[in-house]
User: Which sequence fits this backbone?
């Protein structure tokens, strides 16, 4: 666990991609199986533990610390694992005092003497009282133990004491990564809290942090799964693409993968009949890009406002058909869409958009949302929101992997495949005919009359794909482009601000904004949305400064920022769409809102009104 | 006679903590007639007061920074010496923060308040150790007033630096450290760890560091980094103000590793935001355990909390049955590192 913790810690501070790769590769080289394989699993998100959840960690820390102090600390640090790792009391049960213990007598001389006495008093108490006493709710002057463990306080010279593991009389060795993973996988729900607490007592701060990151499954240290696989590939001088291709058939601790990379074994074969293939993504096209793009090199399609999915069917060795639906990140979402599975009756891997189609008409994203993130799918839901797959790529068929073919050839095979499939729930995403960029620009401006017809409402722009583009995982440059509609824009007033998380944790970077509406006492602002990106780093500093200087009230982590007709900050907010929302006071929710511009020049009284948004909503609904 | 109410002795006003009956302010942020200064950091020690009472070291440091005429008149006070000002008696006691730093004890009519300025109870080879002073009201800072701040053993942090120097003999190591106090402490700690090579200094810290050496604090061989050839700086350690470590100035170093010695480095996001590759948790302020232990040990029944994370420390005091309130003093440190970083001297 220590090596793994050290790796995560160093990666967390390392900004450069090449240095990150170097750190990862040297870890894979130096660390033995199966530890390194579980590390690779953790870094690629392949490990998950059923009974270890963030809620459990919150419970553990809640039983050991004051809830107010925890809330303030979490707000400041912005990361649950790190907050708990830092706050975890050392040797917790042994050092808590019971209420009514008299305060130590202050020493008139040196601070460290006073603290030494305080500590002696503590030791005396801990032998007398039960070891499982929770923190007292009664006011009693208790003194933490500044001399033990990591605390610098206490003025104690570097006496070696602080180098010792923090707790436990027998100083058990910290667990290995493999021990942790196996235990987390096999331990029952009821034993889990005790085990986690035991580890947290045994590990140092970095170890605790790494353990909690592992348990909650959110490493968030700026390492993508792709980067981790690239580092593993470098171990055997392999192309990372090769690792990607066999990846879906592999599982932690990847003994066969490492054996192959080190030249000790054969290349692992992917035996999953319906594996996920890493998806290919598009770059947003800018107006300036077109100068270097030749219209004849590209095929254009509508960009559908649905959910990107990969629908894969394949045969087991015994001939049985296996069908799976994957999200674009490879998450298996088959269970949410049982109504689509019978339609995928030919072996193949389709890349496409999941949509709701009623009466031959594609519904808006708002309608599709009713089908998302459902744990159970009722017959009623399936009937009211019939699911549909609009296919735009074919990655493999019964015979072969097609990803190495140019897009134009894949497209031809896709058309044949859809024809053979002959199912009303699966159709082909049509191409848009165009000879020049201007023609395509005109089609994008008016999809209804350029071929999208009644489905135009579900079109959010145009996709451009090079005819010769191979299907490459990730976001390769210059192959696929997305050319979205221009967003809606309104001017809103900043009302509340909250500190961000992760990298932005000391900055006020989450903003609630509102627009004007008539209230009982004249015009008032009503919140219509929340945004936490879209601004530049420089703008973030400016807003942060504004928030700090113009806070009128604090509610826990939330700052109430001045928002009067003549005083406040106007934010130009861009968003993709609107929907009715009974959960919001304004009755409206925005899709994908972000800060487009800061309008320092505009007084809040000139910001937009709720009626403007209501009109937009009506015209959207009218389609 | 009933003891005086503490707020009749010391009162927070816009220019700082004011003692009306003694006719002085403590660490005023605006020019006043008579100022008592706890220590030489520029957010506490400002130029332009009529009369200044402080330790000899603090007066010397103010003179180094602001020139001979930084105040109308000055008076030096020894640790423990008592001086009567109007109706009150004041004395200065070591705060353990930087060289010459003091807590100021103000007594009147049977009530005693200690304004601790900035303090730490951790060991520091470059200044007098913190002295605990019994009092009725303790005014504490709260720079690291959250239980996530536990500073750890400084020797381990210095070992991290030296291990990195050994690991990258071709790279220079740039250690960001505030130029008064932190820089000299880091140098002294590096020497204690047995490193005897010359240590290089950014120009901004030469004067103060030389003053520390004149005061008899052994710091080994120090060299100005200015004018040294790039190649010669491989495998060396240079101390610089934190702002300089992200500056064009760093281009004179071969592939520098950026370190920063500060209590803020305990929180990973803080280090990442600054682009620090080697965070060193070394602080001249008390950590959470130090703050709470000190508050408890003073025996004070009432605690006033200022500059930093007041909320958490006030809550802690109240949960222990102590009367506590935040003092809304502005101009010291600031709530966040981002703002601390802007003013190089408001050390952390």
Assistant:
């Amino acid at each position: 666990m220590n090596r793994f913790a050290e790796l995560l810690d160093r990666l967390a501070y390392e900004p450069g991609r090449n240095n990150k790769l170097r750190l990862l590769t040297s870890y894979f080289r130096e660390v033995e199986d199966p530890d390194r394989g579980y590390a690779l699993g953790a870094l690629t998100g392949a490990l998950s533990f059923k009974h270890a959840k963030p809620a459990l960690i919150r419970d553990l820390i809640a039983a050991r610390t004051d809830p107010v102090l925890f809330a303030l600390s979490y707000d400041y640090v912005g990361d649950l694992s790190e907050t708990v790792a830092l706050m975890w009391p050392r040797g917790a049960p042994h050092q808590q005092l019971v209420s009514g213990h008299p305060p130590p007598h202050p020493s008139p001389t040196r601070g460290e003497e006073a603290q030494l006495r305080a500590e002696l008093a503590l030791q005396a108490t801990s032998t007398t009282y039960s070891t499982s006493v929770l923190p007292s709710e009664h006011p009693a002057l208790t003194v933490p133990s500044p001399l033990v463990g990591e605390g610098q306080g206490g003025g104690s010279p570097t006496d070696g004491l602080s180098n010792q593991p923090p707790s436990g009389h027998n100083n058990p060795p910290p667990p290995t990564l493999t021990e942790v993973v196996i235990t987390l996988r096999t331990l029952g729900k009821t034993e889990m809290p005790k085990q986690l607490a035991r580890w947290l007592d045994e590990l140092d701060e970095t170890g605790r942090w790494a353990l909690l990151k592992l348990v909650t499954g959110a490493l968030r240290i700026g390492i993508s799964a792709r980067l981790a696989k690239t580092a593993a590939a470098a171990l055997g001088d392999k192309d990372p693409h090769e690792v990607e291709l066999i990846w879906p058939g592999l599982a932690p601790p990847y003994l066969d993968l490492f054996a192959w990379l080190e030249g000790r074994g054969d290349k692992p074969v992917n035996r999953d009949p319906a594996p996920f293939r890493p998806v290919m993504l598009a770059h947003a096209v800018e107006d300036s890009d077109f100068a270097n793009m030749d219209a004849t090199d590209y095929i254009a399609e509508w960009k559908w406002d649905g959910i990107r999915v990969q629908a894969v069917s394949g045969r087991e060795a015994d001939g049985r058909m296996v069908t799976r639906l994957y999200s674009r990140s490879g998450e298996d979402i088959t269970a949410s869409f049982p109504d689509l599975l019978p339609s995928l009756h030919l072996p193949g891997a389709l890349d496409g958009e999941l949509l709701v189609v009623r009466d031959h008409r594609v519904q808006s994203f708002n309608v599709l949302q009713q089908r998302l993130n459902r744990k159970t799918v009722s017959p009623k839901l399936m009937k009211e929101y019939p699911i549909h797959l609009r296919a735009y790529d074919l990655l493999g068929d019964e015979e072969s992997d097609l990803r190495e073919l140019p897009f134009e050839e894949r497209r031809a095979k896709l058309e044949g495949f859809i024809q053979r499939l002959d199912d009303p729930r699966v159709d082909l995403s049509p191409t848009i005919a165009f000879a020049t960029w201007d023609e395509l620009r005109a089609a994008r401006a008016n999809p209804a009359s350029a071929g999208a017809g009644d489905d135009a409402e579900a079109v959010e722009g145009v996709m451009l794909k090079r005819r010769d583009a191979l299907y490459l995982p990730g976001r390769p440059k210059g192959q696929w482009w997305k050319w979205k509609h221009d967003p809606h824009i309104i001017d809103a007033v900043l009302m509340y601000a909250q500190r961000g998380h992760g990298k932005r944790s000391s900055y006020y970077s989450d903003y609630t904004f509102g627009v004007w509406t008539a209230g009982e006492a004249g015009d008032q602002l009503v919140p219509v949305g929340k945004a936490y990106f879209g601004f530049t780093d420089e703008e973030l500093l400016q807003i942060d400064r504004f928030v700090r200087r113009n806070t009128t009230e604090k509610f826990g982590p939330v700052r109430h920022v001045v928002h009067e007709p003549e005083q406040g900050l106007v934010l130009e907010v861009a968003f993709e769409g609107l929907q009715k929302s009974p959960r919001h006071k304004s009755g409206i929710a925005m899709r994908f809102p972000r800060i487009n511009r800061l309008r320092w020049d505009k007084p809040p009284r000139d910001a937009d009104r709720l009626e403007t948004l209501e009109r937009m909503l009506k015209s959207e609904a009218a389609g | 006679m009933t003891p005086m109410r503490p707020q009749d002795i010391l009162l927070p006003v816009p220019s700082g903590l004011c003692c009306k009956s003694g006719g002085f302010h403590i660490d005023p942020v605006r020019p006043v007639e008579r100022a008592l200064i706890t220590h030489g950091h520029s957010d506490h020690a400002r130029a332009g007061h009529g009369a200044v009472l402080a330790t000899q070291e603090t007066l010397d440091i103010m003179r180094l920074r602001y020139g001979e005429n930084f105040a109308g008149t000055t008076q030096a006070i020894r640790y423990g010496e008592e001086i009567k000002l109007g109706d009150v008696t004041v004395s200065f006691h070591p705060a353990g923060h930087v060289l010459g730093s003091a807590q100021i004890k103000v007594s009147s009519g049977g009530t005693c308040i200690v304004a601790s300025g900035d303090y730490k109870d951790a060991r520091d080879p470059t200044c007098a150790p913190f002295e605990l002073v019994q009092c009725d009201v303790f005014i504490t800072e709260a720079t690291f007033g959250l239980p996530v701040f536990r500073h750890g053993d400084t020797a381990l942090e210095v070992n991290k630096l030296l291990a990195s120097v050994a690991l990258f003999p071709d790279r220079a190591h740039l250690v960001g450290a505030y130029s008064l106090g932190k820089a000299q402490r880091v140098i002294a700690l590096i020497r204690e760890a047995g490193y005897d090579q010359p240590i290089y200094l950014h120009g901004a810290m030469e004067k103060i560091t030389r003053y520390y050496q004149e005061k008899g604090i052994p710091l080994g061989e120090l060299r100005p980094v200015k004018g040294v050839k790039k190649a010669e700086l491989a495998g060396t350690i240079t101390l610089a103000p934190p702002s300089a470590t992200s500056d064009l100035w760093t281009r004179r170093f071969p592939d520098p590793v950026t370190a920063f010695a500060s209590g803020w480095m305990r929180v990973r996001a803080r280090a990442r935001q600054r682009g620090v590759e080697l965070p060193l948790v070394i602080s001249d302020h008390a950590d959470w355990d130090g703050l709470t232990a000190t508050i408890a040990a003073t025996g004070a029944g009432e605690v006033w909390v200022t500059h930093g994370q007041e909320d958490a420390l006030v809550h802690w005091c109240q949960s222990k049955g102590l009367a506590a309130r935040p003092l809304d003093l502005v101009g010291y440190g600031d709530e966040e590192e981002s703002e601390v970083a802007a003013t190089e001297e408001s050390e952390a």
Q: What stands out?
A: Chain A touches chain B through 61 residues (CB under 8 Å).
